[in-house]
Amino acid sequence: MEHRTSLFERLFNDPDRPWLALACAVGFSLIPFAGAALADDPGMFLQVGSWRAGLLFAPTMIIYTVAAASSMEPGWQRVYTSLRSVVMISDEAYSDLIDSATAVPLRGELLAVAVGAAFALSRLANTLMNVPTWRELYLLLSTAILYGLLAWLIYFTVARTQATATVLRQPLLVDAAEISAFLVIGEQGLILALLFIGGMTLSLLLLLYSALDPSAFLQIDFWLIYIPLALTPVAIFFLAMLPTHRVLANAKANQLLEVRRELRRASLRLLEHLAHDQDTAAVTQQILALTVLEQRLQVARTWPYNTTMLRTLFVSVMAPAALLIIRKVLERL
Prior knowledge:
Layout (H helix, E strand, L loop, with lengths): L6 H6 L7 H10 L1 H8 L3 H6 L1 H7 L1 H14 L1 H12 L7 H11 L4 H19 L9 H35 L11 H30 L10 H56 L5 H18 L8 H26 L1
């Protein structure tokens, strides 16, 4: 089956032109600099609040978002390569499965972009008064592009998570005590979360640098946007692993049940051997082996992450809040 390349892949992961999307983003961000160069007073142009708060913010975030989008797909390919060792179907069937599961409908991609752009326009359209200047139009367009890209990125991440869930619904050979093949899913979830956190931190740095009124951070509208954004990386981290958790939890429960069943049978054989004064060495060794296996299964993880991943996520989520605290401390000095 031929893989139907998504618009996302064609734009951000084109092997022939991997630089194209980023080059377009950088070129778009240079438009205000060209405007400053053509202005009567470039120094004054660069000092106005709209330059730092608007004309600098959205284009910079667009560049970051494009760079982040370009780095996502290789991680998902590592996930599918790692899962191949536990999926009990032929190589050809597995290849067809990946091609069909990772196909993203164009309608969904375009709708995600449209929803993100419409949200941005609905928030900024009422700020335009009379005939808009080119700077206002650029701010409007760049913000719409930014929100459209963010919505597209979230949509593509959800689509890839669903593709992983499809793979995990196939016949699997899972050892609940050995989950190394699944850890790459946790690593991918962490990478995605860190990409979103990096974007949040960069956006806050730009807002703190801009001429934005510090009281804006005390307004409810600001937090209605940033609180969901702060929770998004955590949601992405765990949602990316949720299908894997279900598979590992079921495997652990089933294998524990089987081991305990065999342990009860071995214990009954031991009692029977003792009652008939028979040799108990073999059955004793079996009981010891089953007990060790039971202990391994009891402590087996059902989420494909380790303490280091969780600690990294927690510290990273705190970074945007730390920036706001540092700003408030510096204001009081």
